Amino acid sequence: MESDEPLAETLILLISELVTNAVVHTGCPAVLRVLFGPGAAETGTVRVEVADASASPPEPRHARSEETGGRGLELVDGLADRWGWQPEGGGKRIWCEVDTSADTSAPGGAAEACGLTGHEPSCAVPRTA
């Protein structure tokens, strides 16, 4: 179980950031889904999805050092192997994925270390350097 602690902590932070962003920017409740791929504990991917009532796309920004907010999507970009969004009904679904089998401490995350790209290229957000 201890070997899963870094993954669990990363997932908790990603979930917290995505749900907080959805609630703060829409003022409405959000719907959370966590999907575990086949054999996720050994060789798979964990996908976190948060749906909200706003059709506005997420807008990553770079907060100034004195600002107390505005870093949520930067954290998601730095911790997740892939992330993106897609329209859904009158709102949207923001998702991120964490690969569980690769060394997620590698610069750029596991997906970049393995040369992988997002599953939904039309909505995938490119990783920043």
Tell me the layout of helices and strands:
Blueprint: H1 5-26, E1 31-36, E2 45-52, H2 72-79, E3 82-88, E4 91-99, H3 109-114
Antiparallel strand pairs: 1-2, 2-4, 3-4
Helix pairs in contact: 1-2
Assembly annotation: single chain
**Radius of gyration, taken over Cα atoms and rounded to an integer in Å:** 14 Å
Give the end-to-end Cα distance, rounded to a whole number of Å: 32 Å
In total, how many beta strands? 4
What structural keywords apply?
129 residues, alpha+beta, four-stranded antiparallel beta sheet, 3 helices, globular
Describe the protein in words:
The protein is of the alpha+beta class. 28% of the residues lie in helices and 23% in strands. The protein is built from three helices and four strands. The protein has helices at residues 5-26, 72-79, 109-114, and strands at residues 31-36, 45-52, 82-88, 91-99. It has a four-stranded antiparallel β-sheet, covered by helices on one side. A hairpin with a 2-residue loop joins strand 3 (82-88) and strand 4 (91-99). The longest helix is centred in the first third of the chain and has 22 residues, at 5-26. The N and C termini lie far apart (32 Å). The model is unreliable at 106-123 (pLDDT under 50).
Q: Could you give a quick summary of the protein structure above?
A:
The protein has a four-stranded antiparallel β-sheet with strand order 1-2-4-3, covered by helices on one side.
